[in-house]
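seq:
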Amino acid sequence: MPDRRRRTVLGRRASRRALREAATGYLLVLPALATFAVFVFYPLGRAIWLGLYRTSVSPNLPSTYVGPSQYASVVSSSAFLGSLWRTILFAVFTMPAGIALGIALAMLAHQRLRGIQVFRTVFSSTVATSTAVASVIFFTLLDPQIGLLSYWLGKKGGAGILSDPTFALPAVSVVSIWQNIGFTFILMSAALQAIPDTLLDAARLDGASSWHRFRSVTLPLLSPTVFFAIVVGIIGSFQAFGQIDILTQGGPNNHTMVLIYYIYQSAFVNNDYGLAAVASVVLFAILLVVTLVQFRFVERRVFYAT
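struct:
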């Protein structure tokens, strides 16, 4: 009996301790949960609900409940599909080139050369540049009258690169690549610092060339950082807004009307909040699916050193 009573007392004490620990844990995460509830979960739920209503053009008329049919009509519309296609093109233009340049600059700055710190500072300097500042810089460089880049590209005095339907989206992509190159460079530089020199020295002693050392040693060890840069880069590309608004406002002829700018114009220019809410929810769903697919399939190729 004493042993049974002792086990019972110890069990009750363990239960109370586990309850206190659980209560403490919930109390510690409560501020984060409250923040997510106010700024993430509630706006998302509100957007889903708002997408069920068709907003009247006149602000004096009430919105009309149309149900899920508005989701189907928006997703199948040519304006939405066109903006989605241009968003995918924008991501294709910016993400691979940005990561490749970031790796190349990190490899250059990783050399043990005198004064290399100056180049590291220069390569990472764009991380302190806002989207507005980067856009204004390139807006001046691409100006058809005084822009140096327009002069070099033979566009001086003409309509300008940003007014050309063929080159407008690639030009905006260059702005995004330049602005984000500092962040990618810092990521890759930090990953290169973590690669043991003994592995590269062993490959060098085995007769591996510079390219083979990069392909067989450096790149596999960089793969976790590259995977992170891909996920963040795709999300950032789908959310690009500032450079579009400053440089082209979606033009010429909607050739730079990406999805996030389509949402902005629907809500704050055309006052169609229901359509904008539907497009926002669909954008969230697309990013969620793309991210899950990357973690499901792309992460298989990531090499995590132990």
